[in-house]
From TrEMBL:
Domain EF-hand: 443-478
Organism for this UniProt entry: Miscanthus lutarioriparius
Protein name: CDPK-related kinase 1
PROSITE patterns reported in the protein's UniProt record: EF_HAND_2, PROTEIN_KINASE_ATP, PROTEIN_KINASE_DOM, PROTEIN_KINASE_ST
Lineage: Eukaryota, Viridiplantae, Streptophyta, Embryophyta, Tracheophyta
Residues involved in ATP binding: K171
Signal peptide segment: none
Domain Protein kinase: 139-401
InterPro entries, alphabetized: CDPK_Ser/Thr_kinases, EF-hand-dom_pair, EF_hand_dom, Kinase-like_dom_sf, Prot_kinase_dom, Protein_kinase_ATP_BS, Ser/Thr_kinase_AS
UniProt GO molecular function: ATP binding; calcium ion binding; protein serine/threonine kinase activity
Keywords: ATP-binding, Kinase, Nucleotide-binding, Repeat, Serine/threonine-protein kinase, Transferase
Length: 644
């Protein structure tokens, strides 16, 4: 989409029935419209790999909420390339998504059957955008260089003005194609995003927008170096690790910039990255914001857009944010390094099921020869749980990237979200987070240290909530007004809290979800547990926990009783017991980690649950006493401390 410089590739007849590019032109004006089957590198046949968690749910919603979702499938692993088998269990997510896109852009023919959620072209639409109407007075339109579903891109030469004599790219979007209010708003929003996102070297430069009775003309920088996809193919289908790092740094840098401004691209793929020129070290530019949108840090989007091979699982579940872009970057990184797609099928239905249910293979060549850091980098982007995925700034801090290049880590909006949750949480949760932060090594704290320095600590090494606002102002563009990022930050800054030194900032800035994605998670959890235990190999008593957390002994005892009662209902399953507690998402896992050892002590000393020990009813007969091992003592499994 956008500013491609190659003629469109025809989709082979065998795959034309279901185009895997779900919406590759849905909001675009000009695009190479390259078929994924013809353009994307295809790997040799291999053996499917069973997923580590065959019943893993990629959405935080309960399983019962999936019944109406296109996610239902029995596919367990990425199908062997070229070996995808039929039939699939219904329903087909492809038809559902095509219907949504048809409704969005009013592309339903009169004789076609009705589609879900309506889709009738709307009458009496206002197609006036308020743009200048003098395009042909300023530019000579040249030849077409790319075409998409809803428009095309041409080269042009400026006849006057500040760009006089300069070659530019012009995205032409016919108004006849704008048959719904949504389609009109997409064009209006694309121009607003392009004009407000300024100041990054890897962003295609926006010049102006025009309109007449028939078309909208978006004038931009002309990129003559071709698509990233073409460069991948020219290199035999893949990049070396060192060359892939150079590409990934540029992609992550511009995407982190967009995310900080509150803009999610929603269609990141190799075709939407162009090289500025044909020179060897030409910078990469992201193009085509036709599907992009503004998103507030604490809000979720729900419309299904994107390209099938690159769409994130949560997009198919219709609840997503900027994390969806990081999944797409993970797919690009996988292709760059091995030359094949991580999720592949002959139809878009199969692709969606693979995205939702399968795990990418890291067993086939060349993965065994690549570094462990490269594999870890890709895996942490292709995590189906969006909460465990790295942000763009965190990805730039990953050892695979930072050990090879001097990379400037940008300010990250997730820090603001995590700090807000930390400030609003209980003393118990804060104490658990501080213990967890103390288990991190200097190398693991690199990202946190960079964020702390970006917030501008004073000479004594402290930051206040006002630093959050000041740091954001230094990085703001006009896009923040539409995304309401500033409004969100203002709500954080109005909270009352003392100044942070680095130790407490580290506790507030770590995400336990993301830490759970680390291979070393269990070691961190066990060490954090031991920080609560003064002697290192016994249950924690109420006095110790109350002293460490600043919580009264009575509150700790009440937590212990509620935990015991939950276990009596849910059995010995720790996770089930914790879910039974009505303490909220920011409390219950802390109780699981901190209070379970108390229950263990009561069980041994009183032969009953905490209810009996404190004069309560307790389960009849006392039940089986809890043990430190069962809930994550020094020799048991790692406790799920708490989630943030």
């Amino acid at each position: 989409m956008g500013l491609c410089h190659g003629k469109p590739t025809q989709i082979p007849e065998a795959e034309a029935e279901e185009d895997p590019h779900v919406a590759s032109g849905a909001g675009d004006g000009g695009d190479g419209a390259t078929s994924p089957s013809a353009a994307a590198p295809v790997a040799k046949p291999g053996t499917p790999k069973q997923p580590k968690f065959p019943f893993y749910l990629p959405s935080p919603l309960p399983p019962s909420s999936y019944k109406g979702s296109p996610a239902n499938s029995s596919v367990a692993s990425t199908p062997a390339r070229g070996g995808f088998k039929r039939p699939f269990p219904p329903p087909s997510p492809a038809k559902h998504i095509r219907a949504l896109l048809a409704r969005r852009h009013g592309s339903v023919k009169p004789n076609e059957a009705s589609i879900p959620e309506g889709g009738e072209p709307e009458l009496g639409l206002d197609k006036s955008f308020g743009f200048s109407k003098h395009f042909f007075a300023k530019y000579d339109l040249g030849e077409e260089v790319g075409r998409g579903h809803f428009g095309y891109t041409c080269s042009a030469k400026a006849k006057k003005g500040e760009h006089k004599g300069q070659d530019v790219a012009v995205k032409v979007i016919p108004k006849a194609k704008m048959t719904t209010a949504i389609a009109i708003e997409d064009v209006r929003r694309e121009v607003r995003i392009l004009s407000s996102l300024t100041g990054h070297s890897n962003l295609v430069q926006f010049y102006d927008a025009f309109e007449d009775e028939d078309n909208v003309y978006i004038v931009m920088e002309l990129c003559k170096g071709g698509e990233l996809l073409d460069k991948i193919l020219a290199r035999g289908g893949k990049y070396s690790e060192e060359d892939a790092k150079v590409v990934m740094v540029q992609i992550l840098s511009v995407v982190s910039f967009c995310h900080l401004q509150g803009v999610v691209h929603r269609d990141l793929k190799p075709e939407n990255f162009l090289f500025s020129s044909k020179e060897e070290n030409s910078p990469l530019k992201v193009i085509d914001f036709g599907l992009s949108d503004f998103v507030k840090p604490d809000e979720r989007l729900n419309d299904i857009v994107g390209s099938a091979y690159y769409v994130a699982p949560e997009v198919l579940h219709r609840s997503y944010g900027t994390e969806a872009d990081m999944w797409s970057i993970g797919v690009i990184a996988y292709i760059l390094l091995c030359g094949s797609r991580p999720f592949w099928a002959r139809t878009e239905s199969g692709i969606f099921r693979a995205v939702l249910k399968a795990e990418p293979s890291f067993d086939e060549a060349p993965w065994p020869t690549l570094t462990a850091e490269a594999k870890d980098f890709v895996k942490r982007l292709l995590n189906k749980d969006y909460r465990k995925r790295m942000t763009a700034a965190q990805a730039l801090s990953h050892p695979w990237i930072r050990n090879a290049q001097q990379v400037k880590v940008p300010l990250d909006m997730i820090i603001y979200k995590l700090m807000r949750a930390y400030i609003s949480s209980s003393s118990l949760r804060k104490s658990a987070l501080r213990a967890l932060a103390k288990t991190l090594t200097t190398n693991q704290l690199f990202y946190v240290r960079e964020q702390f320095e970006l917030l501008g600590p004073n000479k004594n090494g402290y930051i206040s909530l006002q630093n959050l606002k000041s740091a954001l102002v230094k990085n703001s563009t006009d896009a923040m007004k539409d995304s309401r990022v500033v409004d969100f930050v203002n709500t954080v800054c109005t909270l009352q809290y003392r100044k942070f030194d680095f130790e407490e900032f580290a506790a507030s800035a770590i995400s336990v979800y993301q830490m759970e994605a680390l291979e070393t998670w269990e070691q961190h959890a066990r060490r954090a547990y031991e920080l609560f235990d003064k002697e290192g190999n016994r249950p924690i008593v109420i006095e110790e926990l109350a002293s460490r957390t600043g919580t009264s002994q009575r509150v700790i005892a009440e937590f212990a009783m509620r935990y015991w009662n939950a276990r009596s209902v849910h059995g010995d399953d720790d996770a089930g017991a914790v879910r039974g507690l009505s303490l909220g998402v920011y409390e219950y896992d802390a109780v699981n980690a901190a209070v379970s050892p108390l229950a263990a002590r009561f069980g041994r000393e009183h032969g009953a649950g905490p209810g009996r020990a404190y004069g309560g009813a307790g389960p009849a007969g006392g039940g089986a006493p809890l043990t430190a091992r069962a809930v994550g003592g020094p020799h048991g499994r790692a406790p799920n401390l708490l989630l943030c």
